[in-house]
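Final report, Chapter 2: Outcomes

The project's central promise was a pipeline that accepts a single protein chain and returns its three-dimensional structure in a standardized token representation, suitable for archiving and comparison. That pipeline is now operational. To close this chapter, we reproduce one record exactly as it appears in the project archive, with the input sequence first and the structure output second.
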Amino acid sequence: MERKTLDVGAELTLHIVNVPGDLRLTGWEQAQITAKTNGVQLDLDVDGDSATLSCDNDLIVSVPRYA
């Protein structure tokens, strides 16, 4: 299982590029992205106001509501 949390800014565009399993996406009031997979690979990269996320299995993600 892999888990990652990153702080993000006031503006954010999220790109989910690869999830071969189930995806659960929820919004929350925190200025963070939290991602968890039951696989072994989880990539979460933030570059300015853009975030890219991919994994190799099911994925659970919480993102700011404004994303």
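Archive annotation: The radius of gyration is 11 Å.
This record, like all others produced under the grant, will remain available to the consortium after the project formally closes.
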